[in-house]
Write the structure tokens for this entry.
Amino acid sequence: MTLSNPWFVAALIAVLGVFHLELASRFLNLMRLGKPIPGRLAEIFPEGTMEKIREYLADGAKVSGFQDGVSLAALIGVWWAGGFGMIQAKAETFGFGPVTTGVIVIAVIMLAQTLLSLPFSAWDTFGVEAKHGFNRTTVGTFISDNIKSLALMAIIGLPVAWVIVWFFQYQPLAPLYTWLFLAAFSVLMTFLAPRFLMPIFLKFSPMEDGELKEAIFALAKKLDFPVMEVSVVDGSRRSSKANAFFAGFGKTRRIALFDTLLQSHTKEEIVAILAHEIGHNKCRHVPVTMTLSLVEMGVMLALLGWVLKSPDFFAAFGLQGTPVGMGLVLFGILYQPLGIVTGLLGLWMSRRHEFQADAYAAKAVGSAQPLVQGLKRLSHDHLSHPQPHPLKVWLHYSHPPIGERLAALEAVRV
């Protein structure tokens, strides 16, 4: 574990580089809050609202900054104290084979990361979100959600990890087999998650009959978009922020609306927001996004297969031999910068898709105004950044900034 080891240098640059990149984007984003608000956004973000946004985003950035700093310090501390070697040696004392030992290592490190993030999650939920009027999560719900998440990680994540470790431990074509396995698993979870996983955390209730339900089914019929049911989700148990999503494929499609969306938006706005979501389907965004994800996953797994064959890679983290389970964890450190680069393409494509879905929705409902009003209300109510810095947008925004979306909608010819 010295500077003569290129893997050690690459990992150190990756860790410090990503930390400082995030730090710079956070700082530049906060600085942009001092810019004058253009006329198009003035009605959404009057000065009183801007004061709230500045304080909200500054508080959120403080939590993120502290969390990143503590995580970096913990990683470097464990790394340079030989902690990864100690964890591996301890796991091997249980006498299991290399695959089960690798899964134990993965479980221990994932659990440690989860526990390390819990105080910051609580700070964000009961500090920042509560201070600014968004949080409705009780301590009991917070604890329950985290216990459920850990249980699902153990029940689903550990068997998946066991299969992946087995492939890379024994199969020469491990990257290909793992790619096929994860692709199939992703498709399976797309079907199972809405039915069996989401209800563990959220309560889904059938929407009551009325004008809104009739308008939703009329829109679906008009756009030839089969919908099996419309559900209302108890999002208000955790946050005052509004949301909506589609789940399922084909004739099993389900529309889920957060109760907070129903409370804060008009019927016309909700229909326009759903037309936007239908637009993603009609514009074939889902298969495009899945294809891009599969390509990225293939590149990552190919690199992983190459890295796991290098004893010097493991030596850079104070390990002897080439233990696959630990290698899977440590590869994530090295992959961070490349992951950001590949993520830039995915985020750019996602923002482009949002523009297309906006245009589709405007044409579907016969006017851009309902969606415009809905987006304005969401941005105002969620205290969104009116003019985020381009670096922050490139790194994290899957949706275009509100100003760009409104300008594009104004140009749509219905």
Summary: The chain is about 75% helix and 5% strand.
